[in-house]
Inverse folding.
């Protein structure tokens, strides 16, 4: 990417006045890259490499199997989960860092159906993130269709909740449109019919000031590799509200969720509290990377993170409207109704994104025609937003995306 034009003074002022600006230095980011994909894979915190090197060389290499005790590897899912709890409005004994989001969703939706055997429906949104629908479809097949997955459009979803609904399963911030459900209101609507509310926080945790307990949520899952910057394939998390912990059972009753894993008993006795949702051996290296990122987040105020995210997305929308006419916004216009990523429609969205990436602006493409840009407030600056829109305007005006190279699809988009 060549040298960039000077940013207007008012943009520089926004960066100067940004209370979170210093956090960018905690990340290893190429200064020539504008990274607008932290909603898909968070950037690398500077602390992570050292923490991983220590976990590999000292804890594993020297400590060997002793490190399960001496470095408290065995307590890592609870310890790391406790650090996520603060970011999502939960108590530290309500969250575990474990497994993938998909697997955690299986455990929690399965558990919700076991808690309400007389109810036969799981309700979700048409167009929800595919893994959520696939996992629930798999559960339906496993249960011999005694429990049915009902998928309704967002507009009519609330009227579909009834006395037969065991659980309502929604993604708080939609992975494509970026639309945000009002968490407390929807949870109350589910509870009014006696249904459990399960939230997928993959596009919210680390981005928004989520308040699970304030909303009286029952269960939740979310990704560790997006706004939590845990690294590719980082462990995900799950939340079980305290009031459910004594009764609820995980359908994946692995040995790590047993009350005494090292008693090696034949009979399964679930551990107390949220620990019963552990399944197999925790991925210690992945947890070490995720913990390094969470420690870097320290006491960062999530309300300030959300406020900056709203300002970054507002700025992008306003600049794109003036510099890129004819590029429709496919996300809600009001900041309170969306998360921290934006989608725009373009018939050649895939090729436009490849041309942007070649020019150092990294976002992603979502089928069939969406350009998606994520704005992690921890490391995206107002100057990044201004430069990204200038480059986007140039790609669109020059039709740089017509180059056949930009139309060749890679396996991961
Ligand atoms: C809303 C949502 N849920 C779940 C997932 C997948 O999570 P995992 O890969 O941890 O199973 C994603 C991935 O992008 C997502 O956007």
């Amino acid at each position: 990417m060549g040298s960039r034009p000077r940013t207007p003074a008012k943009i520089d002022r926004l960066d100067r006045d940004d209370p979170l600006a210093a956090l960018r230095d905690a990340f290893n980011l190429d200064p020539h890259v504008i990274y607008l994909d932290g909603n898909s894979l968070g950037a690398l915190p500077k602390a992570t490499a050292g923490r991983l090197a220590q976990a590999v060389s000292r804890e594993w290499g020297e400590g060997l199997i002793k490190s399960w005790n001496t470095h408290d590897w065995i307590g890592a899912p609870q310890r790391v989960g406790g650090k996520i709890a603060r970011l999502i409005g939960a108590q530290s004994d309500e969250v575990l860092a474990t497994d993938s989001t998909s697997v955690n969703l299986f455990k929690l939706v399965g558990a919700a159906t076991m808690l309400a055997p007389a109810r036969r429906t799981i309700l979700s949104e048409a167009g929800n993130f595919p893994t959520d629908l696939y996992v629930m479809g798999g559960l339906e097949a496993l249960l011999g269709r005694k429990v049915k997955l009902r998928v309704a459009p967002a507009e009519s979803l609330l009227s579909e909740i009834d006395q037969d609904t065991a659980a309502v399963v929604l993604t708080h911030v939609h992975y494509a449109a970026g639309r945000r459900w009002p968490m407390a209101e929807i949870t109350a609507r589910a509870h009014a019919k006696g249904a459990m509310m399960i939230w997928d926080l993959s596009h919210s945790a680390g981005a928004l000031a989520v308040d699970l307990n304030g909303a009286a949520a029952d269960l939740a899952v979310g990704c560790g590799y997006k706004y939590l910057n845990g690294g590719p394939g980082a462990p995900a998390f799950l939340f079980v509200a305290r009031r459910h912990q004594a009764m609820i059972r995980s359908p994946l009753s692995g040995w790590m969720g047993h009350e005494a894993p090292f008693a090696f008993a034949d009979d399964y006795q679930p551990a107390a509290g949220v620990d019963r949702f552990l399944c197999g051996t925790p991925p210690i290296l992945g947890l070490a990377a995720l913990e390094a990122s969470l420690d870097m987040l320290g006491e960062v105020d999530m309300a300030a993170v959300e406020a900056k995210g709203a300002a970054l997305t507002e700025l992008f929308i306003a600049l794109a409207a003036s510099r890129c006419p004819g590029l429709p916004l496919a996300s809600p216009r009001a900041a309170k109704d969306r998360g921290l990523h934006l989608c725009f429609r373009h018939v050649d969205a895939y090729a436009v994104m490849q041309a942007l990436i070649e020019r150092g602006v990294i976002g992603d493409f979502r089928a069939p025609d969406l350009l998606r840009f994520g704005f992690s407030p921890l490391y995206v600056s107002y100057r990044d937003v201004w430069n990204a829109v200038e480059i986007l305007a140039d790609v669109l005006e020059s039709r740089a995306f017509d180059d056949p190279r930009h139309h060749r699809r890679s396996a991961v988009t």
Observations:
- The chain has two domains: 9-46+301-407, 72-297.
- The domain at 72-297 is CATH 3.40.640.10 (Aspartate Aminotransferase; domain 2).
- Residues 100-102, 129, 131-132, 171, 175, 200, 202-203, 223, 236 surround pyridoxal-5'-phosphate (CB under 6 Å).
- The chain has eleven helices and twelve strands.
